[in-house]
């Protein structure tokens, strides 16, 4: 097979990190999905073919290239090919609605999209070739045979200050915003975080998350930059805690990265197994993406004591390249707190008040982050970039990223206090949902709890709180449990902390990024309100009919 020519060893980049292991262990397995397994050498060959194809279609270093593919080895091949070419990958999840896909395409303006015919058809991207945006649709299915007759294509070495990827996150306006991150930022993350681990070439990592969620950057490059194996988790298995538990054993997974919401399901499955069940082969479980509830780890500690596997909590932000802090967890930690540890070596975490003054130890402040992992900014949003990436008052010429998250420092450790914008104001009272959640979880019948605002009324105002709960096995009715929970809260919190209603669910619904699906919970709750309203209307109609009968009888 003909290779792309270029001096890739002269400058550090994500591709050179991968290429190092292609040379050291070409026959070791690099990546697997349900149907395909590739060694490091085979992965490099396929990536070169695809990079060759992209170059011949006019893709240049610095271009944006979309990846619109289902979970598969082809995703990983595409990422490496794009980076090998010096371009920037833009992951788009095929489960996104058309409106979001079109927004991302219009904003990122990719010169090409790697996709399949069926996905292109579903999103009306037309035939393989040029679509309505004058970009190339590159087939993921036929690229290998298509390129057998192509000649070598020379390219320049990738510069570390080039953008590596653009990931779109939810925006406050409802429109996603693209965060541009370079090779140098990801390399700083890998150097800082992997130094805290005993990561080995013999490890097996999962690619559990959507490529469009930045947790996948850590999963993919944590594996490929250490010569480990990457197992792509099929979507059907990722959404079934029981099937995923079996998958971890079958594939010999040693390093698992999870959002807490996703991991709680695995905890429940493991807790239901007897002592004769085969233990999970995990060496590390790394949490990220949302706040961790330590109380939910109690049954896990009972089954896996003594830090085997090691549980790590890593607070992180897309704009600061996935992870910011590191904390090894222990079972004797205070379950009512949310510790996130200390900043990675490549970052500085500073807690500031509204006047950009550092708060004292024990005081809550907003998290600001400085250092080598700060993203370049938001694509096409210079105004928003200037608002969130601010000039540091402590270091001339340096930037700080304003996270919008609250934390408190005790000693060297940071403790997470939620989003500054998650603090709610209901009927004039400021309320921190985490306080209510902690009280609810302390009730013997509650397995998990999350407090969200009720949907806004027609005037755009939020008037109440909705407590979403999963329960432990109990014979008590939902109405009786509601009464108990109201009393339980009233005993510990002021009256204005009492939720407007309680929604019981079998499991907390998650988005494709593994985070709590607030929109779906609102929909579920509104459907129960409509049902109750319909029943009330029926009862009123019966009462009115009965009243009319009695009136007629009196005539």
UniProtKB/TrEMBL annotation:
| Any one GO MF annotation of this record | phosphopantetheine binding
Q: Domain AMP-dependent synthetase/ligase: where? A: 18-379
Can you say what this protein is called? Dimodular nonribosomal peptide synthase
Q: Which PROSITE patterns match?
A: AMP_BINDING
Q: Which GO biological process categories is it annotated with?
A: amino acid activation for nonribosomal peptide biosynthetic process; secondary metabolite biosynthetic process
**Boundaries of every AMP-binding enzyme C-terminal domain copy:** 435-515
Q: Identify the gene encoding this protein.
A: dhbF_2
* GO CC annotations on file: cytosol
Q: What is the lineage of its organism?
A: Bacteria, Pseudomonadati, Pseudomonadota, Gammaproteobacteria, Alteromonadales
Top-level taxon of the source organism? Bacteria
InterPro entries reported in the protein's UniProt record:
AA_adenyl_dom (IPR010071), AMP-bd_C (IPR025110), AMP-bd_C_sf (IPR045851), AMP-binding_CS (IPR020845), AMP-dep_synth/lig_dom (IPR000873)
Q: Which organism is it from?
A: Pseudoalteromonas holothuriae
Alphabetical list of SUPFAM superfamilies matching this protein: Acetyl-CoA synthetase-like (SSF56801)
Pfam families in the cross-refs: AMP-binding, AMP-binding_C
């Amino acid at each position: 097979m003909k290779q792309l020519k270029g001096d890739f060893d002269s400058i550090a980049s994500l591709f050179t990190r991968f290429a190092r292991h292609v040379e050291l262990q070409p026959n070791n397995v690099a990546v697997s999905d349900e149907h395909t397994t590739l060694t490091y050498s085979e992965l490099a060959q396929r990536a070169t073919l695809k990079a060759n194809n992209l170059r011949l279609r006019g893709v240049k270093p610095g271009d944006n290239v979309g990846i619109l593919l289902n979970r598969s080895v082809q995703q990983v091949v595409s990422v490496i090919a794009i980076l090998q070419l010096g371009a920037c990958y833009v992951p788009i999840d095929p489960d996104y609605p058309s409106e979001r896909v079109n927004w991302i395409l219009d904003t990122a303006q990719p010169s090409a999209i790697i996709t399949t015919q069926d996905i292109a058809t579903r999103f009306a991207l037309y035939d393989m070739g040029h679509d309505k945006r004058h970009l190339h649709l590159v087939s993921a299915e036929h690229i290998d045979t298509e390129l057998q007759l192509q000649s070598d294509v020379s390219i320049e070495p990738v510069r570390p200050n080039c953008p590596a990827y653009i990931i779109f996150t939810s925006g406050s306006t409802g429109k996603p915003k693209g965060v541009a991150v370079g090779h140098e930022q990801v390399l700083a993350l890998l150097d800082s975080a992997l130094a805290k681990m005993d990561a080995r070439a013999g490890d097996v990592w999962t690619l559990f998350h959507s490529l469009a969620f930045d947790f996948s950057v850590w999963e993919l490059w944590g594996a490929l930059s250490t010569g480990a194996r990457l197992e792509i988790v099929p979507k059907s298995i990722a959404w079934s805690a029981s099937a995923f538990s079996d998958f971890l054993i079958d594939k010999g997974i040693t390093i698992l990265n999870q959002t807490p919401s996703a991991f709680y399901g695995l905890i429940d499955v493991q807790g239901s197994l007897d002592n004769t069940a085969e233990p999970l082969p995990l060496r590390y479980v790394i949490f990220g993406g949302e706040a961790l509830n330590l109380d939910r780890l109690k049954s896990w500690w009972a089954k896996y004591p003594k830090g085997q596997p090691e549980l790590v909590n890593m607070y992180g932000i897309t704009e600061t390249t996935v992870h910011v802090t590191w904390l090894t967890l222990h079972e004797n930690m205070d379950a009512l707190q949310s510790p996130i540890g200390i900043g990675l070596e490549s970052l500085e975490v500073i807690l500031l008040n509204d006047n950009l003054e550092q708060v004292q130890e024990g005081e809550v402040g907003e998290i600001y982050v400085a250092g080598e992992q700060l993203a370049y900014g938001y694509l096409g949003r210079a105004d928003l970039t200037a608002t969130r990436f601010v000039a540091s008052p402590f270091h001339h010429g340096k930037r700080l990223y304003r996270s919008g998250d609250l934390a408190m420092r005790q000693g060297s450790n940071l403790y997470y206090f939620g989003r500054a914008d998650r603090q709610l104001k209901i009927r004039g009272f400021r309320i921190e949902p985490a306080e209510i959640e902690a009280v609810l979880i302390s009730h013997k019948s509650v397995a998990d709890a999350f407090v969200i605002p009720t949907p806004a009324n027609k005037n755009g105002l939020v008037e109440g709180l909705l407590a979403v709960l999963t329960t432990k096995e109990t014979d008590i009715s939902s109405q009786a449990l509601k009464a108990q929970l109201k009393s339980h809260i009233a005993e510990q919190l002021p009256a204005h902390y009492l939720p407007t209603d309680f929604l019981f669910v079998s499991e907390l619904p998650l988005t494709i990024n593994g985070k709590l699906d607030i929109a779906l919970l609102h929909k579920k709750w509104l459907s129960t309100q409509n049902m109750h309203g319909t029943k009330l209307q029926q009862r009123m109609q019966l009462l009115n009919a009965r009243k009319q009968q009695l009136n007629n009888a009196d005539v």
